[in-house]
TrEMBL record:
Coiled coil: none annotated. This is Iron complex transport system permease protein. It is a multi-pass membrane protein. Keywords: Cell membrane, Membrane, Transmembrane, Transmembrane helix, Transport. GO terms for cellular component: plasma membrane. InterPro entries: ABC_BtuC-like (IPR037294), ABC_transptr_permease_BtuC (IPR000522). GO terms for biological process: siderophore-iron import into cell. Belongs to the binding-protein-dependent transport system permease family. FecCD subfamily.
């Protein structure tokens, strides 16, 4: 355990940095707000404080625009980072990201079908358009992931290599279909497709936050309970079995967890990459390192053995 950086101190420091980042995200923008006014308006929106003077403009900007976007960015980043850890542990590859099993491309394909299909039918109803688009994206992500998992199953076992190759192939196929829809789309539909594929927080709303919040909470509660299993998988599937872990069940749970989390994130904010790949590496730099037992025994035993040799000569 690193004596300089304690886990509790590190957690407190990162929590304070997160709170500061959220505060600055609410204050900065095309219309800059004073930091104190931002804090008062946010507390007043939450019903935790009474402002001493009129903050109607700040409350309007925060309540309708910045607060939903900030919370959406927070939840999307958290769930993508958690799913990135799961995929890197499952594939035993530090370059693995949550979209490797096709969930991101499948969600984008589902959204593209909804956008192009809605335009072909004369447009989606305004009251149901955001929810229908997110639902199609979520179903598309789960569907492609289920297909990848099914292709990787054989004789009651799941081949990680086959899943990886199937995910790459289905990713290419999904993006080819999206490219075809983009080529056939008119100007208005093309604009919507482009914004969705690039990822955006502009469509954030409190109605979209609740499903993503529930999914993020479920992933955040479940994944740490599989930390020992992920560490065992890094040694290899045979070693994990010898340690007593149900490898096939754990792999199925990791795939389902990733599909659920990434599907919900893409359904809420579109395709946002790089987070699930980089954040796990940054966290590992802060995590304490464990010395192998051989180093400890050598440091203690070697001097004692030399002492015995010298004593025997005398």
């Amino acid at each position: 355990m690193n004596p300089v950086i304690r886990p509790r101190s590190l957690f407190i420091a990162l929590s304070l940095l997160l709170a500061l980042a959220l505060w600055l995200s609410l204050a900065l923008g095309p219309v800059s707000l004073p930091l104190l006014d931002t804090l008062k308006a946010a507390l007043r929106l939450l019903g935790l404080a009474q402002a001493g003077y009129d903050l109607a403009q700040a409350e309007l900007i925060l309540g309708q625009i910045r607060l939903p976007r900030t919370l959406l960015g927070l939840l999307v980043g958290a769930v993508l980072a958690l799913c990135g850890v799961a995929m890197q542990g499952l594939f035993r590859n530090p370059l693995a990201d949550p979209g490797l099993i096709g969930v991101s491309s499948g969600a984008a394909l589902g959204a593209a079908l909804a956008i192009v299909g809605g335009a072909a039918l004369g447009g989606l109803p305004q009251a149901f358009a955001p929810y229908l688009l997110s639902l199609c994206a979520f179903i598309g992500g789960l569907g492609v992931t289920a297909l990848v998992y099914r292709l990787g199953r054989r004789d009651g076992e799941t081949s990680v290599t086959t899943m990886l190759l199937a995910g790459i192939a289905l990713n290419a196929l999904a993006f080819a279909c999206i490219g075809l829809f983009t080529y056939l789309a008119d100007d208005a539909t093309l604009r919507t497709l482009t914004f969705w594929n690039l990822g955006s927080l502009n469509g954030a709303s409190y109605a979209r936050l609740w499903p993503l919040l529930l999914v993020t909470a479920a992933v955040a509660l479940w994944l740490p309970r599989r930390a020992k299993a992920l560490n065992a998988l890094l040694l290899g599937e045979s070693e994990a079995r010898h340690l007593g872990f149900a490898v096939e069940r754990i792999k199925a749970e990791l795939v389902f967890c990733t599909a659920l989390g990434v599907g919900a994130a893409v359904a809420a904010a579109g395709m946002i990459g790089f987070i699930g790949l980089v954040v796990p590496h940054l966290v590992r730099l802060l995590a304490p390192a464990e010395l192998p037992i051989g180093i400890v025994t050598a440091l203690i035993g070697a001097p004692f053995f030399l002492y015995l040799l010298l004593r025997g000569r005398t």
